[in-house]
C-alpha cells in the first residue's frame, strides 16, 4: 500500500467513527439506551447511564431513589446512612456518599433520631 492509501483508509475510519458519535449509534441492537460515545458505568453485570442512575447495593437505581435513615430520608446515590453515637440504636447521621462513617461530624451531616 502506498502512503496515500494509508491516509485515505485512516480518513475513512475517522469519518465512520465520527458519524457513529454524532448520531448516537446504539451499543446493542436490542434497544439499549447506552450510546457508543456516551459515558457509561457497570453495576454488577449491568451497564447504566450515570446521568440517570447509580449503583446502590449492587443494583441499578434511579438518581432520585431515597431511603429512610432513622427519622430522616436520604438520597442513596449521593448520601449514606451511618450509625452515630456509642449506642448505634440511638441515632444516625446522613453523610455525603464516599465520606467514611467513622469521620467526625461535618457541616454537611444531618443527625437523625432513631425511630422506635
From TrEMBL:
Subcellular locations according to the entry: Secreted
Signal as UniProt keyword: yes
Assigned keywords, A-Z: Secreted, Signal
Keyword rRNA-binding recorded: no
Region forming the signal peptide: 1-24
Pfam families membership: IGFL
Family assignment from sequence similarity: Belongs to the IGFL family.
PANTHER family: INSULIN GROWTH FACTOR-LIKE FAMILY MEMBER 1, INSULIN GROWTH FACTOR-LIKE FAMILY MEMBER 3-RELATED
Name of the protein: IGF like family member 1
Amino acid at each position: 500500500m502506498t502512503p496515500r492509501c494509508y491516509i485515505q483508509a485512516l480518513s475513512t475510519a475517522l469519518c465512520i467513527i465520527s458519524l457513529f458519535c454524532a448520531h448516537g449509534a446504539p451499543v446493542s441492537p436490542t434497544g439499549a439506551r447506552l450510546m457508543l460515545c456516551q459515558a457509561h458505568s457497570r453495576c454488577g453485570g449491568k451497564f447504566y447511564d450515570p446521568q440517570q442512575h447509580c449503583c446502590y447495593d449492587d443494583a441499578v437505581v434511579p438518581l432520585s431513589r431515597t431511603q429512610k435513615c432513622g427519622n430522616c430520608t436520604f438520597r442513596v446515590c449521593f448520601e449514606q446512612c451511618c450509625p452515630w453515637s456509642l449506642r448505634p440504636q440511638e441515632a444516625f447521621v446522613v453523610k455525603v456518599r464516599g465520606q467514611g462513617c467513622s469521620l467526625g461530624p461535618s457541616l454537611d451531616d444531618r443527625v437523625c433520631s432513631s425511630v422506635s
